[in-house]
Amino acid sequence: MQQQLEEIRLIEASAELLYSQAEVEASLDRMADEITARLAGSHPVVLCVMVGGLVTCGKLLTRLHFPLQVDYIHVSRYQDRTHGGDIAWLGRQPENLAGRNILIVDDILDQGYTMQAIVDFCYQEKAAQVLTSVLLDKPAARKAEISPDFAGFSVADRYVFGCGMDYKSFLRNAPGIYAVMP
Ligand SMILES: O=P(O)(O)OC[C@H]1O[C@H](OP(=O)(O)OP(=O)(O)O)[C@H](O)[C@@H]1O
Ligand SMILES: Nc1nc2[nH]cnc2c(=O)[nH]1
């Protein structure tokens, strides 16, 4: 553990700040306005993608001032690595999505496999409409044919952490968005 903490400390100390906490908050204000314009009146289910989507979803929720319900889905394809693998479906799966408008909220759309799988799952469950929302879009890394309906920032193809995004399961609590130095 001590060795791991030392690595985390070094990664944090050498990382490049891409977006400050203030810039993230301003971006979330804009996203919330766009989501409200599109979804207010449709009493959507906001589906938080655990674990990374936790911060983005929590911060967005208190900016959405219309009737909605909240649920979560827990999937992972990176675990403690900085490259993706197979999607692991963890824990319970959300129910009662049939006929509903769904807003999936995650931290990042990278290769896109995770979000594509969750969108497919929602439609298999007979959702009426599925929209996607991420704090970060990384279009240069995309492998699946999907783009977000709502996004905070576009980032280059670098591994990032903060605002829910981890480096080897740490640093999710960093208040800005940082890129790991190569
Ligand atoms: O677009 P993709 O290449 O599929 O990657 C995006 C996914 O990767 C991260 O999750 P991760 O698997 O690391 O799990 P976590 O949420 O627990 O960090 C992130 O939270 C997204 O859900
Ligand atoms: N923390 C983190 N998780 C990811 N999942 C997919 N891409 C990324 C990334 O750049 N950072």
From TrEMBL:
<dbReference type="GO" id="GO:0000287">
    <property type="term" value="F:magnesium ion binding"/>
</dbReference>
<feature type="domain" description="Phosphoribosyltransferase">
    <location>
        <begin position="18"/>
        <end position="167"/>
    </location>
</feature>
<dbReference type="Pfam" id="PF00156">
    <property type="entry name" value="Pribosyltran"/>
</dbReference>
<dbReference type="GO" id="GO:0046100">
    <property type="term" value="P:hypoxanthine metabolic process"/>
</dbReference>
<protein>
    <submittedName>
        <fullName>Phosphoribosyltransferase</fullName>
    </submittedName>
</protein>
<dbReference type="GO" id="GO:0004422">
    <property type="term" value="F:hypoxanthine phosphoribosyltransferase activity"/>
</dbReference>
<keyword id="KW-0808">Transferase</keyword>
<dbReference type="InterPro" id="IPR050408">
    <property type="entry name" value="HGPRT"/>
</dbReference>
<dbReference type="GO" id="GO:0032264">
    <property type="term" value="P:IMP salvage"/>
</dbReference>
<keyword id="KW-0328">Glycosyltransferase</keyword>
<dbReference type="InterPro" id="IPR000836">
    <property type="entry name" value="PRTase_dom"/>
</dbReference>
<dbReference type="GO" id="GO:0005829">
    <property type="term" value="C:cytosol"/>
</dbReference>
<dbReference type="GO" id="GO:0032263">
    <property type="term" value="P:GMP salvage"/>
</dbReference>
<dbReference type="GO" id="GO:0006178">
    <property type="term" value="P:guanine salvage"/>
</dbReference>
<dbReference type="InterPro" id="IPR029057">
    <property type="entry name" value="PRTase-like"/>
</dbReference>
